[in-house]
């Protein structure tokens, strides 16, 4: 049989010719060791120019395209292309991987840059968003990520002088980034007028915010901050590809072939033009430069590297050359010398010296070259061209001999015959032409049998035959030189081939994997001397096979380095080297051949062990002919499939789907859940059949192990169990912490979870998810206990290394393609692991976010074996592994030292001791060894005879296979494959502690009718009898010949019937388990068996043959058969008289039969319920209707059991739930209590004879579980109550309009801002201007044009407003936010928010300062209470990710005093964040979103790291707050929602609040939270009650704490007193704010005095003796605790848009009028409210009279009033219109009042006629509603802006429209507030397609105009503003709409009013 192992000889990469210059830049640097680092193909190269040697980094698996050097100049980062590209950081000295960064980019990594201290790395992806990532590369951790740009980014660089600033540039942009928290935010560079907007190719940062960048046109652009400040023109004459900054200054390299050096100020030093030098050529283009002291490196587009000494700059040295762009296919080796020649699509032929590693000659051709061949004497060289011609050159001087063109298609293959007389030329046309060399290459033959293009040809040794391969996969033979086709097999057999380069033929079939097509191996070359074959393929691999290799799928060694296709491979003439060429990477690799025998020594010395030398290829899926057969146990285990049809994680979705499907069903009242509950007491079972190392002693000496979905902590003294029930599916692995107090368990799941939990408290400390699919099969803690290694069951058996406390994955890697059995952490080095598995042992080294691995080297010491166990020894380097053969393999580092025979059969378990080892094998023997496996000290055989009397059970067989061993407490703990756990005393006696069924499903379960005993029968072919009293043990066991599915005791308990899987059944004696009688009447399995009542006269036997047979027990005869079921029978029950049988079938039929004959009866539903049944195990019928869940198409209820008193029905289903229902269960989807523990399906449930205990068995989990029933009164532990039972609508605690509104608020972002007015028409900047007929003559002799605007030249100096600064805000967002008002600095300041501004107000001075970094409305605010973080505030805002990725809502954490942003958290809460809260230590922050899932996220805010996140609830969550003493416990409340959360590592676990049976208490909408000592939680409900919880159980109610909803609660940390605020009318006893004691038993109410009723409070906060209160109506007051006096601090407009605004003509006051029905007069200098008028209707506009005596206000209902300013008495009012008054003005001469309305009119009133206010005229012809109006200075005209974007001018008071432009031009206006007109066309922005400019105002000096728009911006322009899109300054602060804006009388202030934010902003003019 041919040897199919991999060859023993090896290749080692020795040299790479080439450098990647195309499509890359900045990829060539000096290292600290003065070596040159660059890359080519997939290899990082470190080239030592002095010694002319190369080192290689081979850690990539595809083309490298980017490179950066660490500031230490030793570490290098490289990035690659590919589907899942990664970044390697490696050491250029040892060429070893230091860190791997993965899972962030797709497509490729285009740029890399280290920051100045080398801690962080920035990378840019090639994906569509050009994602920018920032890494903490040592930890392999992603710190931040952001969308880079819509187009390619070419360079990125850190500012070396500012730690968090980064600059990137690319196609038509440059961006300046800041990193804060986890938010990376960019500002675009402003090109302005200084330079053209163009593509920037490279950049370098300098001091003082200066950035230098190289542009596409050869200019250098210099930036200061964001602005382009100057350009250095013509620095290069074409694009500048590379810029390098160093101490000396800067070097630039460009497409013009020049290098220029600049000093640190960017003044030119020198210029070197490489095109002009001796090696230069036209078109030389520089892609990369590097400058170090007096040396320069330059890399070119054409793969050359130049080194230039600055002193001898005219003599650059060419230190590396390679082929240029274009594919490289042609390769030939010189027949006699160490020379090779290559030819490429770059049209050059190059001759290389293999000994000197240098290019000797190069010759350029006219055409691309695809093949080359040397003549046998080496004198001539033939070249095959792409155009179908070939050329022969004389090698000596490269002169042409002939040039022949006989073909049209490319010549892909050519070879001279060995005797030198012929040349065979194969083309893509198909034929091979034969030319005679001596006759000047005359064509003398043609081989033309090929149907496709020729790929390979070979000559025979005697030059008489030729073989060809073609593209159709045919191998043909020809006679030479005629070309006659040869078919005789005999003749062919005898031919000896001179060379072997064909890929088809029996000699090389082994190079093809078993199932592939024939195209992916491009080239082979056989080495007859060493019987080895080299191949090159499409996957970039060079492989070595044995030669010949006859059988498909042979083993090989593989070598990586080339990126995509290896186009050609050849041995050198003396077989010292292999040469390989890369197609796309156009590089030539030279490999040194290392024959057998030398390999070991070389391997150790070679630093390349990582890259590719270790190839016992995993790909060879051969039939393992060369390995002993597999052990059956291992084989069986390897085939176990852990996939589930439905994973537990999918249940919520299924529930949701079925709800949506069935929502039409009218919702009947669902059955109540039962009062009683269950507690899991004991479990029989231990999972040994497919798990290992899963049994340990804890610190306290208890035993911990697992079965089903339960982890068990077993007490040996009391024989009792404590259970960890956190898992929801099978646990597959378990590992114990070094300190033995914590345990990690891993389970099955789609996203398989690992729990780390405490064995004392059974609390989950950390939940690790998101990395493993299918399941977690192996776990191990690191020696320091801080980390955890886990292995998954996904296809690649991923290995993950966790920091388990934080729940962060530190590193991950693909493990192996076959199952991994064990992972072990190295006790001496935290960052090393070893794994063993199927044919596999690997040694891992953590590198950043990944691992590098080395495979074990077996050498000649041992064979590659499947390893089942592994341990580290005392000595650092040693590793011991147990093999499937029973040998122990002893390793030093990765080298096998020796093997020791230890067991017969696999060594399944191994445990390291202080002075040795203990092993356990399939042979059932436990062996103790010394520390080097030199002596076996003692063995223990596990036998029945050795069992001690105190054993809790029986051994099933002697010498069971051992799966787990652990030592401690003077004992050896052993777990067997048969599910037994034994404890071996060191002297020999063994005690069996726990046991269960073995592998196979358990279905049969029967409870004894009189005793606490039960029987089970399983597919493991055993029948077992268990004692259920406190002894909990197996009493008897009997092996059966077949597995069984059911069993039943006779009524007297003496006989036991057992139904088997083959259709037979037997009846045995219940005590001795010996046969009494057996029958075999059916073929299919027996599914249920039951004795009739009383004497047990009949036995009914149900089978899958669809029949029930009835036997007479006494006569042992079959007496009846029940027929009529259309499917297999699932359940049967007798009635109490033993006369009637109830039968359920798989088709969900419920049938009735009469005994003994089996006659079928149809019984009406009403009658069924009257029948008294002996047992009820059926699952169908009207009394069981409610047990089927909503998604019952997926799940099946397998079993049911009814208590004797017929009140409680227990069921078991396919999801592993045991459920309790109240019987009868009528109506659909009854409520229940459900319990987890079983994993996949629960197959059977049975109540014990006295109903006190429920027994359940699991199918595949083999567990028998014993549950005790807890009656209502005595429940010590309320276990999880039914989760399914969702509360119904009718149970809500009432309705409150405020809550309902808030629930429904939909936050939209400004980005979507839509016009707040419904305008129609074309926007002004899009209107075409009509040219007036009489354009003015250029020089006008007419009188000079009058002023556009009357200038109130108060002080003759015209003042230009340069800037606005926010001075004061009147506003507080109380209407839909809560708890957003706090004291700072011990009550000296308060902080709150409105619109997009965070406001800090000093209480003594009243002055405000602002935080204005938010881009949209702030929705929440919290203050850090921890003294370490004084005045640290978190705020968050609205935002929406769906359409605008840039608008993700961010949480800002900032210092309230300095307003510095400390951190920004970019969240994925879509729509916005509506609550934030700090933890007790102040280090964590919790946030909740208004997204549909209402996600709750916990952050480590200083690092910007997300700790954990999880959907909170389907409806609004209002508040989420940490317990004041905790960093892990918090509470969330919301719409019918109350959850108690625990942060476990990186997971969030919750318990729902349990209301229990408290009177009057219902789960209702909760609005607020407070905390008390001893784990008390108070929540305020919508109906005014406060619920008091202890842990998560409701303990009492504080009834009617307020009469309306309790909106806010505040826990004072100092003294624990609680303040509540809510909706309540002030009365003697009551008030909207109350102060309570710590337990909320006594309270004191405060009536808030503000001149009007305050009945709705949204925020409270308590300081020293004061309570701060925020109301729904936007007031903020302070209440003294002693005297209850209230002091109004802020009194703003309430909810409703503010439209009306007017400033007084001579004083510092202004008036605002709002939809809240009030007008308020404010003082600008004192910043306070002077007066407030209630108007009774929403107001829309306001205006002062020019003398300041009167103010006119227009209302939404069409009415207007005129008030006297001093007394605020009404002077007159009138209502002539039905719809809103939009603007109102009084003429400059105080005579006329103009009123503009929504009814498209302006009405004029004469004020001199007194208060009658008769209309004296109105304007007609107004196209749409009126927006603004302005009078002319002489009061004769009025200009009106309308909703149709038209401005019209009318006469006053007649209202006639003026259309003559000449007249209009001459008018001087008194004011200008219009947004329309040519004078202001420039105020309209580009993006105003939906949104509008709403308001404008020109200064009294007439030089500036301010505007307010729908985006919430206030903008400042120059006036007049006649150019479109004029330049301006913009100011943030308002939320979406700015409705109105005015300058104060002296232009010192601007006042703006908000639509959505109901706030008034005052800006100072500077």
TrEMBL record:
<dbReference type="InterPro" id="IPR011047">
    <property type="entry name" value="Quinoprotein_ADH-like_sf"/>
</dbReference>
<feature type="repeat" description="WD">
    <location>
        <begin position="1698"/>
        <end position="1732"/>
    </location>
</feature>
<dbReference type="InterPro" id="IPR005108">
    <property type="entry name" value="HELP"/>
</dbReference>
<feature type="repeat" description="WD">
    <location>
        <begin position="404"/>
        <end position="435"/>
    </location>
</feature>
<keyword id="KW-0853">WD repeat</keyword>
<feature type="repeat" description="WD">
    <location>
        <begin position="559"/>
        <end position="591"/>
    </location>
</feature>
<keyword id="KW-0677">Repeat</keyword>
<feature type="repeat" description="WD">
    <location>
        <begin position="330"/>
        <end position="362"/>
    </location>
</feature>
<protein>
    <submittedName>
        <fullName>EMAP like 6</fullName>
    </submittedName>
</protein>
<dbReference type="InterPro" id="IPR055442">
    <property type="entry name" value="Beta-prop_EML-like_2nd"/>
</dbReference>
<dbReference type="Pfam" id="PF03451">
    <property type="entry name" value="HELP"/>
</dbReference>
<dbReference type="GO" id="GO:0005874">
    <property type="term" value="C:microtubule"/>
</dbReference>
<comment type="similarity">
    <text>Belongs to the WD repeat EMAP family.</text>
</comment>
<feature type="repeat" description="WD">
    <location>
        <begin position="1774"/>
        <end position="1815"/>
    </location>
</feature>
<feature type="repeat" description="WD">
    <location>
        <begin position="250"/>
        <end position="265"/>
    </location>
</feature>
<comment type="function">
    <text>May modify the assembly dynamics of microtubules, such that microtubules are slightly longer, but more dynamic.</text>
</comment>
<keyword id="KW-0963">Cytoplasm</keyword>
<feature type="compositionally biased region" description="Acidic residues">
    <location>
        <begin position="616"/>
        <end position="628"/>
    </location>
</feature>
<dbReference type="Pfam" id="PF23409">
    <property type="entry name" value="Beta-prop_EML"/>
</dbReference>
<feature type="domain" description="EML-like first beta-propeller">
    <location>
        <begin position="53"/>
        <end position="307"/>
    </location>
</feature>
<keyword id="KW-0493">Microtubule</keyword>
<feature type="domain" description="EML-like second beta-propeller">
    <location>
        <begin position="1698"/>
        <end position="1965"/>
    </location>
</feature>
<feature type="domain" description="EML-like second beta-propeller">
    <location>
        <begin position="328"/>
        <end position="592"/>
    </location>
</feature>
<feature type="repeat" description="WD">
    <location>
        <begin position="1931"/>
        <end position="1966"/>
    </location>
</feature>
<dbReference type="InterPro" id="IPR055439">
    <property type="entry name" value="Beta-prop_EML_1st"/>
</dbReference>
<feature type="domain" description="EML-like second beta-propeller">
    <location>
        <begin position="1002"/>
        <end position="1268"/>
    </location>
</feature>
<dbReference type="GO" id="GO:0008017">
    <property type="term" value="F:microtubule binding"/>
</dbReference>
<feature type="region of interest" description="Disordered">
    <location>
        <begin position="1323"/>
        <end position="1354"/>
    </location>
</feature>
<feature type="compositionally biased region" description="Basic and acidic residues">
    <location>
        <begin position="1323"/>
        <end position="1338"/>
    </location>
</feature>
<dbReference type="InterPro" id="IPR050630">
    <property type="entry name" value="WD_repeat_EMAP"/>
</dbReference>
<feature type="repeat" description="WD">
    <location>
        <begin position="1235"/>
        <end position="1267"/>
    </location>
</feature>
<keyword id="KW-0206">Cytoskeleton</keyword>
<feature type="domain" description="EML-like first beta-propeller">
    <location>
        <begin position="720"/>
        <end position="983"/>
    </location>
</feature>
<dbReference type="Pfam" id="PF23414">
    <property type="entry name" value="Beta-prop_EML_2"/>
</dbReference>
<dbReference type="InterPro" id="IPR001680">
    <property type="entry name" value="WD40_rpt"/>
</dbReference>
<feature type="domain" description="EML-like first beta-propeller">
    <location>
        <begin position="1407"/>
        <end position="1678"/>
    </location>
</feature>
<dbReference type="InterPro" id="IPR036322">
    <property type="entry name" value="WD40_repeat_dom_sf"/>
</dbReference>
<feature type="region of interest" description="Disordered">
    <location>
        <begin position="608"/>
        <end position="628"/>
    </location>
</feature>
<dbReference type="InterPro" id="IPR015943">
    <property type="entry name" value="WD40/YVTN_repeat-like_dom_sf"/>
</dbReference>
């Amino acid at each position: 049989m041919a040897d199919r192992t991999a060859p023993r000889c090896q290749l080692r990469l020795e040299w790479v010719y080439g450098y990647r210059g195309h499509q890359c830049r900045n990829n060539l640097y000096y290292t600290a060791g003065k070596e040159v680092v660059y890359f080519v193909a997939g290899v990082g190269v470190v080239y030592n120019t002095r010694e002319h040697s190369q080192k290689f980094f081979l850690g990539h698996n595809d083309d490298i395209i980017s490179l950066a050097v660490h500031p230490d100049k030793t570490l290098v980062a490289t990035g690659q292309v590919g589907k899942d590209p990664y970044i390697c950081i490696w050491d250029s000295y040892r060429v070893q991987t230091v860190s791997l960064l993965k899972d962030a980019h797709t497509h490729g990594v285009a740029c890399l840059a280290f920051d100045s201290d080398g801690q962080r790395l920035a990378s840019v992806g090639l994906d569509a968003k050009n994602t920018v990532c920032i890494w903490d590369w040592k930890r392999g951790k992603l710190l931040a990520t952001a969308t880079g740009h819509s187009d390619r980014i070419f360079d990125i660089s850190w500012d070396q002088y500012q730690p968090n600033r980064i600059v990137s540039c690319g196609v038509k942009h440059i961006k300046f980034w800041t990193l804060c928290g986890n938010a990376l935010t960019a500002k675009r560079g402003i090109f302005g007028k200084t330079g053209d907007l163009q593509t920037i190719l490279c950049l370098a940062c300098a001091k003082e915010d200066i950035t230098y960048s190289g542009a596409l046109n050869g200019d250098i652009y210099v930036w200061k901050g964001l602005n382009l400040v100057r350009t250095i023109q013509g620095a290069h004459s074409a694009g500048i590809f590379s810029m390098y900054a160093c101490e000396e200054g800067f070097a630039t390299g460009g497409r013009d072939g020049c290098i220029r050096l600049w000093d640190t100020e960017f003044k030119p030093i020198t210029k070197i033009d490489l095109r002009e030098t001796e090696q230069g050529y036209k078109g030389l283009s520089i892609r990369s430069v590097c400058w170090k002291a007096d040396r320069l490196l330059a890399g070119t587009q054409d793969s050359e590297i130049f080194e230039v000494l600055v002193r001898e700059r005219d003599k650059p040295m060419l230190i590396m050359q390679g082929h240029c762009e274009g594919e490289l296919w042609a390769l030939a080796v010189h027949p006699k010398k160490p020379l090779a020649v290559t030819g490429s699509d770059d049209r050059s032929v190059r001759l290389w010296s293999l000994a000197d590693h240098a290019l000797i000659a190069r010759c350029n051709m006219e055409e691309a070259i695809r093949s080359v061949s040397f003549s046998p004497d080496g004198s001539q060289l033939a070249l095959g061209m792409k155009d179908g011609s070939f050329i022969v050159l004389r090698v000596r001087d490269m002169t042409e001999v002939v040039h022949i063109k006989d073909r049209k298609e490319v010549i892909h293959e050519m070879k001279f015959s060995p005797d030198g007389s012929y040349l065979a030329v194969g083309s893509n046309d198909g034929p091979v032409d034969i030319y005679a060399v001596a006759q000047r290459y005359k064509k003398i033959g043609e081989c033309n049998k090929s149907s496709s293009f020729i790929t390979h040809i070979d000559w025979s040794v005697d030059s008489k035959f030729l073989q060809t391969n073609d593209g159709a996969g045919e191998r043909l033979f020809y006679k030479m030189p005629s070309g006659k086709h040869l078919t005789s097999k005999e003749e062919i057999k005898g031919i000896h081939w001179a060379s072997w380069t064909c890929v088809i033929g029996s000699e090389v079939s082994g190079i093809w994997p078993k199932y592939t097509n024939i195209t992916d191996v491009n080239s082979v070359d056989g080495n007859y001397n060493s019987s080895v074959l080299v191949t090159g393929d499409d996957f970039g691999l060079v492989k070595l096979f044995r030669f010949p290799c006859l059988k498909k799928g042979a083993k090989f060694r593989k070598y990586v380095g080339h990126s995509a296709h290896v186009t050609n491979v050849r041995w050198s003439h003396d077989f010292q080297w292999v040469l390989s060429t890369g197609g796309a990477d156009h590089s030539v690799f030279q490999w040194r051949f290392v024959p057998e025998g030398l390999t070991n020594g070389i391997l150790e010395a070679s630093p390349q062990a990582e890259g590719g030398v270790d190839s016992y290829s995993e790909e060879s899926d051969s039939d393992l002919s060369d390995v002993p057969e597999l052990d059956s146990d291992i084989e069986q285990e390897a085939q176990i499939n852990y996939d589930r049809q439905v994973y537990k994680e999918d249940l919520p979705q299924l529930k949701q789907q079925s709800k949506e499907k069935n929502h039409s069903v009218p919702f009947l009242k669902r059955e109540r859940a039962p009062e009683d509950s269950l507690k899991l007491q004991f479990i029989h079972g231990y999972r040994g059949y497919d798990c290992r190392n899963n049994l340990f002693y804890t610190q306290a000496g208890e035993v911990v192990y697992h079965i089903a979905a339960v982890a068990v902590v077993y007490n040996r003294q009391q024989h009792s169990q404590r259970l960890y029930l956190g898992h929801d599916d099978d646990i597959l692995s378990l590992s114990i912490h070094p300190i033995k107090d914590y345990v990690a368990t891993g389970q099955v799941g789609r996203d398989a979870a690992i729990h780390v939990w405490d064995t004392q408290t059974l609390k989950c400390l950390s939940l690790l998810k998101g990395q493993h699919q299918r399941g977690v099969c192996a776990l191990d803690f690191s020696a320091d206990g801080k980390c955890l290694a886990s292995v998954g069951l996904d296809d690649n058996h991923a290995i993950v290394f966790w920091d388990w406390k934080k729940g962060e994955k530190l590193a991950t890697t693909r493990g192996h393609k076959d199952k991994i059995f064990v992972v072990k952490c190295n006790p001496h080095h935290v960052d090393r692991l070893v794994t063993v598995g199927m044919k596999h042992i690997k040694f891992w080294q953590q590198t950043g976010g990944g691992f590098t691995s080395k495979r074990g080297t077996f050498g000649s010491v041992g064979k590659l074996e499947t390893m089942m166990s592994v341990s580290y020894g005392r000595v650092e380097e040693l590793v011991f592994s147990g093999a499937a053969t029973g040998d122990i393999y002893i390793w030093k580092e990765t080298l096998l030292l020796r093997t020791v025979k230890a067991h017969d059969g696999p060594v399944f378990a191994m445990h390291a001791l202080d002075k040795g080892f203990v092993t356990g094998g399939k042979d059932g023997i436990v062996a103790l060894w010394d520390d080097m496996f030199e002596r076996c000290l003692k063995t223990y055989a596990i036998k029945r005879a050795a069992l001690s009397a105190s054993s809790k059970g029986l051994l099933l067989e002697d010498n069971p296979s051992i799966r787990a061993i652990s030592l401690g407490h003077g004992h050896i703990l052993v777990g067997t494959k048969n599910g037994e756990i034994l404890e071996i005393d060191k002297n020999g006696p063994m005690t069996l502690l726990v046991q269960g069924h073995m592998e196979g499903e358990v279905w049969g379960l029967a409870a004894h009718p009189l005793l606490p005993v039960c029987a089970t029968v399983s597919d493991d072919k055993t029948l077992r009898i268990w004692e259920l009293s406190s002894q909990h043990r197996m009493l008897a066991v009997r092996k059966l010949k077949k597995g069984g599915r059911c069993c039943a005791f006779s009524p007297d308990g003496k006989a036991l019937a057992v139904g088997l899987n083959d259709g037979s059944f037997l009846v045995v004696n219940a005590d001795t388990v010996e046969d009494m009688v057996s029958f075999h009447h059916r073929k299919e399995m027996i599914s249920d068996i039951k004795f009739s009542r009383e004497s047990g006269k009949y036995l009914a036997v149900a089978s899958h043959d669809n029949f029930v047979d009835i036997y007479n027990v006494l006569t042992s005869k079959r007496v009846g058969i029940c027929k009529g079921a259309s499917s297999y029978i699932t359940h049967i029950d007798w009635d109490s008289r033993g006369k009637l049988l109830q039968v359920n079938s798989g088709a969900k039929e419920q049938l009735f039969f009469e005994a003994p004959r089996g006659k079928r009866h149809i019984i009406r539903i009403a009658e069924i319920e009257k029948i008294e049944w002996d047992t009820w195990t059926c699952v169908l019928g009207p009394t069981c209707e409610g047990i089927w869940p909503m998604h019952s198409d997926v799940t099946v209820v397998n079993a049911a059991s009814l208590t004797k008193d017929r009140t409680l029905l227990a069921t078991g289903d396919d999801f592993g739930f045991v459920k309790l229902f109240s019987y009868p269960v009528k109506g659909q989807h009854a409520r229940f209590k459900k319990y987890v523990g079983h994993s996949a399906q629960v197959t059977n449930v049975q109540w014990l004879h006295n109903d006190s205990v429920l027994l359940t068995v699991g199918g595949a989990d083999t567990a028998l579980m014993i549950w005790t029933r807890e009656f209502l009164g005595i429940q010590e532990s309320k276990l999880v109550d039914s989760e399914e039972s969702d509360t119904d609508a009718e149970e809500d605690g009432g309705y409150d309009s405020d809550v309902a509104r808030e629930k429904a608020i939909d936050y939209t972002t400004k980005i979507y801002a839509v016009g707040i007015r419904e305008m129609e028409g074309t926007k002004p900047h899009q209107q075409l201007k009509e040219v007036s007929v009489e354009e003015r003559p250029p020089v006008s002799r007419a009188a000079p044009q009058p002023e556009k605007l009357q200038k109130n030249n108060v002080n003759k100096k015209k003042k230009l407003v340069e800037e606005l600064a926010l001075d004061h805000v009147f506003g507080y967002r109380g209407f839909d936010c809560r708890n957003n008002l706090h004291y700072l600095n011990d009550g000296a300041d308060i902080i709150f928010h409105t619109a997009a501004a965070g406001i800090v107000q000093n209480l003594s001075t009243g002055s405000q300062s602002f935080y204005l970094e938010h881009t949209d409305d702030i929705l929440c605010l919290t203050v850090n209470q921890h003294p370490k973080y004084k005045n640290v505030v978190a705020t968050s805002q609205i935002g929406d990710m769906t359409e605008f990725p840039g608008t993700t809502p961010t949480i800002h954490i900032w210092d309230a005093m300095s307003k510095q942003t400390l951190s920004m958290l970019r969240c994925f809460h879509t729509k916005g964040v509506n609550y934030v809260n700090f933890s007790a230590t102040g280090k964590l922050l919790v946030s909740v979103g208004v997204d549909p899932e209402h996600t709750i996220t916990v952050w480590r805010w200083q690092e910007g790291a997300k700790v954990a996140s999880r959907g909170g609830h389907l409806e609004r969550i209002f508040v989420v707050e940490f317990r004041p003493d905790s960093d892990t416990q918090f509470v969330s409340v919301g719409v019918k929602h109350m959850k108690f959360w625990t942060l476990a590592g990186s997971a969030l676990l919750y318990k729902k609040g349990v209301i229990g049976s408290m009177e009057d208490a219902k789960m209702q909408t909760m609005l607020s939270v407070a905390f008390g000592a001893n784990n008390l939680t108070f929540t305020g409900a919508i109906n005014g009650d406060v619920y008091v919880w202890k842990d998560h159980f409701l303990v009492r109610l504080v009834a009617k704490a307020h009469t309306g909803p309790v909106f806010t609660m505040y826990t004072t940390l100092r003294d624990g007193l609680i303040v509540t605020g809510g909706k309540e009318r002030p009365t003697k006893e009551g008030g909207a704010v109350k102060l309570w004691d710590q337990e909320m038993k006594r309270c004191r109410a405060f009536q808030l005095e503000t001149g009007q009723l305050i009945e709705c409070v949204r925020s409270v906060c308590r300081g020293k003796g004061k309570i701060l209160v925020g109301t729904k109506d936007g007031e903020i007051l302070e209440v003294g605790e002693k005297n209850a006096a209230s002091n109004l601090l802020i009194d703003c407009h309430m909810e409703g848009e503010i439209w009306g605004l007017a400033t007084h003509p001579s004083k510092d006051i202004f008036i605002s009028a709002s939809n809240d029905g009030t007008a308020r007069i404010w003082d600008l200098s004192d910043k306070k409210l002077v007066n407030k008028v209630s108007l009774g209707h929403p107001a829309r506009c306001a205006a002062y009279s020019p003398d300041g005596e009167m103010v006119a206000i227009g209302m939404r209902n069409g009415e207007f009033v005129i008030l006297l300013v001093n007394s605020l008495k009404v002077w007159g009012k009138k209502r002539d219109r039905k719809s809103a008054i939009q603007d109102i003005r009084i003429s400059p001469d105080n005579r006329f009042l103009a009123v503009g309305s929504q009814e498209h009119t302006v009405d004029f009133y004469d004020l001199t006629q007194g208060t009658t206010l008769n209309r004296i005229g109105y304007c007609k012809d107004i196209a749409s509603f009126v927006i603004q109006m302005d009078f002319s200075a002489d009061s004769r005209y009025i200009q009106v802006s309308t909703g149709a974007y038209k401005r019209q001018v009318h006469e006053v008071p007649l209202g006639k429209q003026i259309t003559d432009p000449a007249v209009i031009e001459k008018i001087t206006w008194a004011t200008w507030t219009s947004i329309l007109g040519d004078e202001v066309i420039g105020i309209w922005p580009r993006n105003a397609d939906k949104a509008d400019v709403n308001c404008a105002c020109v200064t009294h000096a007439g030089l500036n105009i301010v505007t307010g728009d729908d985006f919430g911006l206030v903008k400042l322009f120059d006036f007049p503003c006649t150019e479109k899109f004029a330049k301006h300054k913009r100011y943030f602060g308002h939320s979406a709409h700015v409705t109105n804006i005015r300058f104060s009388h002296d232009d010192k202030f601007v006042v703006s009013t908000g639509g959505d934010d109901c706030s008034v902003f005052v800006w100072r003019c500077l």
